Structures are given as structure tokens and as C-alpha cells.
Sequence to fold (346 residues):
Amino acid sequence: MHNQINAKENVLSLIGNTPLIALKKLTADFVGEFYAKVEAFNPGHSAKDRIALHIIEEAERRGIIKPGDTIIETTSGNTGFSLAMISAIKGYKCILAVSSKSSPDKIDMLKTMGAQVYVCPAHVSADDSRSYYQVAKRLHEETPGSVYINQYFNELNIDAHYKTTGPEIWNQTNGAITHLVTCSGTGGTISGTARFLKEQNPDIKVIGVDAYGSVLKKYHETREFDANEIYPYRIEGLGKNLIPTATDFDSIDYYIKVTDEDSAHTARDIAKKEGLFVGYTSGAAFQAVKQLVDDDVFDENSRVVVIFPDHGSRYMSKIYSDEWMQKQGFLEDLPEMKKEQIAYIK
Ligand code: PMP
Fold:
């Protein structure tokens, strides 16, 4: 008789099927029921595992890449981490062009996973030759046997969420979901999930979360790209200074904007009240839920799903650093804050 070894072949089989977790304490005073789809449970700790795996495996199916070839992408960090993880397992080289707005932790993580990283200035226009879009494009042209993932303009980004996130949420709520609240960066998450859910029930309302300083909300409302909307903001991965074709604007009912400061404090609240250590955009997404509650959008029949895109460990030098928060003007009395929570034994 042989002992059966109960092991996974590798971490790729753990991608997707993330839990839906009821938010009880944070929503105690709200009307309706609220659930978080917690994407930090993916092995790469974010929703981007889904698109990275789907796009690479689709390229393999189509015969576009073979082991030893190079995967190239622009990324605020999460997609890069997922691509680096999958490249390590499948035997691809991985080159990543990232924004200088990305936290040093994120960049170190990408290096740790074996990727080659190019850090590009955050506050230049998308068509500037130094922008991470242009740098990735150039590297793709210069590197033979390379594939440019191009998540902002790749329909497979939407498809990954249409095939996985949407069905998971539909099944986990037994079709009872009434509202989906989710961040919009490339738009893949919101568009793919919304398309699937609205095919099941067209009455489901889909609300996109955008940042002040981004063009998405205005574009959705007017179909006009207004460069005057653009200014620097701190939240990474949310909002955009261009119009991604990976966003299906017709699948979104409306957008709501959130501030850097509110989103940072809300992320900290999620950890303290729900024991969920999630990222900056998770704070942004739940901040949007709070604003929707203030606007009386929900009633007792509402079953609201909010997607938390990634894990809090990626923001230790940002929203989870009191010093960083103070530097942004988000925390005033640093010594008092510290005294409350830390006792130094001498
Ligand atoms: N949150 C984080 C932390 C992200 O990195 C991203 C991706 N840019 C998003 C939210 C938005 O997801 P999507 O690109 O699918 O719109």
C-alpha cells in the first residue's frame, strides 16, 4: 500500500476561488448586508493572479510563447508580482516597467521573484517616452521572443474576471447579489465581473470606484477625455490618466470618487474592526460603500459585494506607517497615537 501524498503540484492551482467574507462590525449601522470578496487569498495576494494566469495560458494555447521566452508588462506592482510568480513556475523571463509611485516593498518583492524591474517617473503623460507604457513597448520591440501582456488594452483581462470572479460571486451569493462595488484601474475586474453578473440578472447595480485626479468618472459620464481632471494622487492601482480599452464602460452603472485620506483611514479601520489586513484600494472600495450608504443607495434587501483587490503587507511603508500618514497630513498627533498602542519595556 502506498501512502497518498496530498500536495498541490504548484501554487498555480490555488489561484481564484477566493472567499466571500461577511463584513459585520464595519456595517453594524448600515441597512442591508455587506460582503467582501477578499482577493488577498490568491497565492500572489491579489486579484491580478487571475489575469496573469489567464493571459499567459491563453498565449500558450495559441502557441505565441514557449518556455524561455520573455513576459513584459507595465504594472503598479500586483500584476508584476503575479507575472513574476507564474514566470518562475513556468520558466519564462519576466521584465516589468513600474511607476515610481509604487512602494519600495512592491519593487523589492518583484526583484525577489526574479523579475527585471524598470522604475519609471509617475507624473509624466502616458505618451511620454519615459512613461511605463512607452518603456514597456520599447522593451518589447527590442526583445526577441517577448510577449507584452498590455493589461490596459487586453480584452483577456476582462475575460479572466468574466470566467472566474463573476461566476464565483454569483455562486457564493446564490444569485442574491444586488450591488457590486469595485475599483477601476485597468477596468478588467469591474468589467468582466459586471458582464457576467448582469447576464445572470440585469438589475444588479455595478458601481466603479475612482480616484480624485483620474479621468474615468468624467469619461463614463460624458464619453469625453478631460486632461484637466488629471493630477497626482497617492492611491496605487485605482483610477487612470488614460482611457483603457480593458474597461467596458457600458457594464458600469456609475462611478464614485474617493480621497487618498479617507481611503487610507478606512483601510486601517478594516484591519482593526474585521481583522482583514488589506491594501489601499480595499480601503478605497469600502470608503465608496460608506459614501453610498450616506447617499441612501441601499435598503434592507440590498446584498452588497465589495471586492478587496490585494493584501495589506504591500503597504507597510505607506498607509500602515504612521510616519508616512503624518507626512501626508493624514495623522496629526503621532506621539499620542504611538503611546496608545505601543508600550516600551525598559
Ligand atoms: N487595486 C489594486 C491594488 C490594483 O493593483 C489594481 C490594478 N491596477 C486595481 C485595484 C484595479 O483593478 P483593475 O485593474 O482590474 O481595474
